[in-house]
Amino acid sequence: MFRIVVLNPKGGSGKSTVATGLAAMYAARGYHPALMDFDPQGTSTRWLEKRSRNLPEIHGVAAYARTIAVTRSFQLRVPQDADPVIVDTPAALQTQHFIEHVKDADAVLVPVMPSDADIHACSRCIGHLLISGKIKRRENRLGVIANRVKPNTIICRTLMRFLDQLQIPVITTLRDSQSYVHAGELGQGIHDLNPARVHPELAQWEQLWSWLESRRHAIEPAESFAAAH
């Protein structure tokens, strides 16, 4: 079961937009994604509630809503055919809790916005993932998404220079587009919209898709070997 974790403790980074966009992308391609919402704000869960039943199905888990009626493991269960599982982590996630979310992740995505505050927060987040989250660069399962970028601006160039210095791959750059706002209001992702109207956005998501599929193909031989032995 391929597991993708979207993480950035700083609010407003576009974490839920990326998580819901991933779910919509996989659903549109015939997969059966599960979207686990650990963020108490419940943004991904509300997005799912607005989603039309005529659109490809996405299984939702409101992981932030704890209850004593059932066990925690039962509450967090996903269908056996769920693929992938996409995790929207809490904003303001404490460093010591990083490893709880990323230890079983096949891919960890960190969205970052082009602002001084976000760049500083992203630097700390990456550092904590490498140390507290125990993610090794050679594993190649950590990637950055530059989000809501306006090309050819000073802050955009600053962001890209910073990301280059991190030595962590920048998987894609998502442009600042109102299409994300319109889609989100309807419980949709870019892949649910008319392709002719969002062609530039789809091209950027295709880069993300390619990287994630390379991650999937990289872990499948290892899992097959482990199962055989």
List descriptors.
alpha/beta; 8 helices; 7 strands; 229 residues
Model description:
The protein has a domain at 3-109 and 178-228. It is built from 8 helices and 7 strands, in the order E-H-E-H-E-H-E-H-E-H-E-H-E-H-H. It has helices spanning 15-28, 43-50, 72-75, 98-102, 116-131, 154-166, 178-185, 199-228, and strands at 3-6, 34-37, 59-61, 85-88, 107-112, 142-149, 170-175. The protein has a 7-stranded parallel beta sheet, sandwiched between helices. Strand 2, helix 2 (43-50) and strand 3 (59-61) form a beta-alpha-beta unit. Helix 1 (15-28) runs parallel beside helix 2 and helix 5 runs parallel beside helix 6. Residues 224-229 have low confidence and may be disordered.
Instruction: Say how many strands there are.
Output: 7
In the predicted model, the low-confidence regions spanning at least 5 consecutive residues are 224-229
Structural class: alpha/beta
Proportion of strand residues: 15-25%
Rg from C-alpha positions?
17 Å
Q: Report on the biggest sheet.
A: 7 strands, parallel
What is the ordering of alpha helices and beta strands?
EHEHEHEHEHEHEHH
Number of DSSP helices?
8
- Gap from first CA to last CA: 19 Å
What coarse outline follows from CA principal-axis ratios? globular
- Give the fraction of residues assigned to helices: 40-55%
Order of adjacent strands in the largest pleated sheet: 3-2-4-1-5-6-7
Q: What do the pLDDT scores average to?
A: 91
Per-chain topology:
Elements: E1 3-6, H1 15-28, E2 34-37, H2 43-50, E3 59-61, H3 72-75, E4 85-88, H4 98-102, E5 107-112, H5 116-131, E6 142-149, H6 154-166, E7 170-175, H7 178-185, H8 199-228
Parallel strand pairs: 1-4, 1-5, 2-3, 2-4, 5-6, 6-7
Helix pairs in contact: 1-2, 5-6
